[in-house]
Amino acid sequence: MDHDYGFDLEEAIKREGLSRADLQALRTPPIEGVPLDITDRLLACFLNACRKNVPETRKVIKIYYQDRREAPELFDNRDPLNPKIQQCFQNQDYFFLPPTPAGHSVIFHRLSNPKASNYHFDEAVKTYFMLIETCMYHQGPRPGLICLFDMNNVGLSHLLRVKIGTIRKFFHYLQEGLPAKLKAIHVLNAVSFFDKVLYIIKPFMHAEILNMLFLYPTNTSLEKLYDEWIPRSCLPSDYGGELKSVAELHQEHLKTYQSLRPYFLAEERQRKGDSKLIEETSNKIKSLDID
Fold first, then answer.
1. Where are the domains of the chain?
2. Which of 108, 117, 263, 272 is the most buried (most CB within 10 A)?
């Protein structure tokens, strides 16, 4: 199926200690608003993110699809060849890094172009969500997801392009509907006006997420990052790592996005095509229960 992830399901089930029986339990009864052909790979990601709690997992799956329906500006038209997404790729860096020794996935993002006029917030958030999905497509369920941001090219003028409604939807999905366990958010080259950034986003962040936030102002030592979170072997050379430069890694990952074009197109077709059917099926089951 084109809308399925590409990781090795059996390896992931064994690695994360998941149960086939629990995966099946997530399908019965059908969840309202969720496609009947949701894949076992995606279910495995949800189950792992919810610490193998089946009832909680079912709630998160429903939110995942609900959030996608209610935010078409962030989840529809995700063709990697779309000119608006290409514009993001040309002005920002998006890629995932190798899993850490602890098994965590790491996704990286920064602005490569400092001009605020080239920053389109909705499209940037859409592309960032595509990055998370691309990482999960390849790496599958993991003990945690680490978000790594570099604010080097961020200026006050970028804040004027932020949309409060989009921030609300961003954090709701990230905190309530993401099929991954958010482990930490590391901000490199944290700007002097980060308090203003926090003023905008804090109302939409759970206390748990705030406690995951780690700031590294410019010229701050990254030894703690290396020792406790992401070793040099998993970081770009720009940050004292052993991998290629950010620019090189970004260019390599552009090919990854393009290779997943069939997936992104099929995911939207699958998501939109079956939601009505599931709702009708669920209503019929409820009707039978009442009778």
1. 1-70, 83-256
2. 108
